[in-house]
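Schema walk-through. Below, the input block comes first and the output block second. Nothing else is stored per chain. Lengths vary across the set, and this one has 308 residues.
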Amino acid sequence: MTLSLLIALLPIAILIVLGAWLKRRQFLADIFWAQAERLAYYVLLPSLFFHGLATAKLDGLPFQSMVSVLILSTVVVALMLLGARALITTDNAAFTSVFQGGIRFNNYVGVSAAAGLFGAQGIALAAVANAAIVPTVNILCVMVIAKYGSGGRMPFSKVLKQIALNPLVLACFAGGLIQASGWGLPVGIEAVLKALGQASLPLGLLCVGAALEFVSLRQWLRPVGYSSLVKFLIMPLVTLCACHLFGLDGKAAIAALLFQALPTASSSYIMARQLGGDAPLMAGIIACQTMLAAIALPAVVLIMSQWV
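--- output ---
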């Protein structure tokens, strides 16, 4: 189990380091990174979420109980973070990054690790996890950034508009509708969306590496610590309680714990940059959580899986 998790984390760490190296060496013009972030946010990431949800194989899985566990635990932890905002930081933009770091998850690591642990069934369980958490975290994060981001507090009507027009949220709901309808995707369109979605993972991680500002690492220690404490301890504990509440056990419960203890995703950085969060801090949280996950993720899954 530990080896499967480490193998899933390794390419993420390498891509972040590569992005940092490319930026420091000025291999690409600075304008490239801003355009790459825009491409990832409006085209590649929506393709990833839409394709993943539209094509997920969900037959024979405890769909309802697993979705209930994942949504409830995510919302509870989000409310805990909001309640503790004044204790975490007085910088609203920085709080949005801590918030994303606490509730978002890296799809790539989750799918790879679930497949390594449970084979084809693991991929199906990962699809259920994505169906539950991706729309939930995107709606929550858009709401929080709209309220606390550097763009200033928005009226409620504008927050709703941000959610309704957000490309990641739209992609999640569109993919869910295709999944629910049973229509499936045309062969040619499915292949295009799959290719675009796959491109989002390396490009997003390269952008994370390029955004790292190592001179700021010392001032990031506190927010990184808060977000990592939530991600690797509080979120899994709340998820464990939810598993007992809804009677979820076995491989499905282990998969739920796995996904809720994953390091935060590169899409967090893209959202922070595009919507007015603290993007440099978000890049630092992503990089640090990815490194910490090499120890924290196997420990959480191995220890807590004994209680489900």
